[in-house]
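Hey all, sorry for the wall of text incoming. These are the two entities for the joint prediction.
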Amino acid sequence: MVAAVMSDAAPSAAKRRTWTTSINAWLLLLPAIVLLATFTHYPILATLYHSFFSLGRSGPAEFIGLDNYRYMLDDDVFRQVLRNNFIFAIATVPTSIALALLMAVWVDKKIVGRSFLRLAFFTPTVLPMIAVANIWLFFYTPDYGLLDQFLRFLGFAGHNWLGDPATVMSCLAVMVVWKEAGFFMIFYLAALQTIPPELKEAASVEGASRWYFFRRVTLPLLMPTTLFISINALINSFKLVDQLVIMTKGGPNNASSLLLYYIYEVAFNFWDTTYAATLTVTLITILAAVALTKFVYLDRRIHYQ
Amino acid sequence: MSEIVVNAVSKSWGGVGGVDRISFKAEAGTLLVLLGPSGCGKSTTLRLIAGLEEVDSGTITIGGRDVTHLSPAERRISMVFQSYALFPHLNVAENIIFGLKVRRVGRAEREARLKKVADIVGLSHLLERKPSQLSGGQRQRVALGRAIIAEAPVCLMDEPLSNLDAKLRHEMRTEIRSLQQRLGMTMVYVTHDQTEAMTMADRVILMRDGHIEQNGAPHELYNEPASDFTARFIGTPPMNIIGWRDGSLLGVRPEHISLVERDGVSARVKAVEYLGADSIILCDTDGGTVCVRQTGYCSLPAGAQVELGWQNCHIHLFDKDSGKRRTGGVSPH
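and here's what came out:
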């Protein structure tokens, strides 16, 4: 009798409790959801939506299907900035990673002035990109820039580094590597310090040379860090374009323009917002593909402690 | 033959853990235990033999070859670390054959030796696992496998069992000892656990503050401790040391004290620890607390007055100031 009453009451009480818990949970999630939806999810969907419509300067916007994308594939400037962007990524990502690793291994050792060196390597990171661009602009300025002054001192002729399509990308790549490598070094340094020193001793008892140990033990144990850094570096190479505004405006003749900078030009100089939306969707697709590769494929192949 | 001779070796960092002009010899094919409390220099000694630290002075020879200034690899030794030092990204098989790969041993021989060693240490079914997927005891076996696959004549062990639970430690103790005897290795084994030292060693070197306190077979350390330090360190419970006449210390093992009817040293029972096969009776005397081992169960209540007696042939006398053993100073009756 009592049991029957209990069993009748129990489910509804339990249900009410579950319900209160979910309300609580949703309320706690609400601030984050509102912010994400307003400033991330909605804009992405809106961008995707607009990329299927005509601009509508002289009348209402019309649905034009994939016309914008067709136009994009025929756009020589788009092809050029995409090519530039890939060249830029290939030039900066591996170099800054290799440099970061080299610096980290160096300042991980017990050497005089280690803290000072670490600080020196890290300084470029704390500078804003705008400041960095201004500093390097002074290096690259023709005739009275630091680089030209130095070359003249050695007896060489000056060069318009940022004005020459053949050199402008290399110049920007060097600057970005200089700025990024110190930041990545910090991650490598932290990872190096988690490797127990006994591993090195065990390897030396087994007769492994320092290079063998580095190649077969240190590098594999640093792989999670390397992956993290390379994804970040790759994303940065698509996302960091402040220097173009200061130094080249994408010139000469789009030789240094990158995809994001081109989107900015199309959207806010030419006011072709639907084409800019199309380009943005392309950029988001590229970045999403990079992130997906990490989560789906690479994470499975790497040893995590 | 691969005996190890350490001759007047010193190493200091200006703090604890150094060693000061120590000399000893480990005979080929025997197990030598370096025993002592933490900071006594036993691990330093082992690392000096391994070549992981440079000596300040003195010489080390292995198998008649002067290795004092050789690298660890050139000394032809293997070593097991306290933390096992397994490579976390390599599986069991790759961990064990790491050294063979370094020395470019051919694939066929590598496989054959791996199979043999995996059988010896009982890991044949776990070769594909990563260290993180193994229990403490299994990791210990991987470390052991990596040490013996090298077939080095000398094996050094740095507190290899201190991360294991009591039952496993007991099993591994027996296993390591029989492995050492079967393979005929010269083994130097560092521990702070006197039970490990007593049960495994052919010879025990007890160290204290960077010098050797006593060097001898386990039964010599137990039956004829050279100092009150040795007497207090060896045995569970250790030897009772109480103040005695004319500036000396008197030591008697708990099993050599018995409760007598009269004419003994009077004492009061403080507590009784029942261990099953025997009981340890803790008694307060004028000279300090004394442990008495009695066979079987002891029903004495705390606070009971008892008389303690022992035979003169069982007592040890030590100098109060130097702590050194006094020989022939024991007057019979």
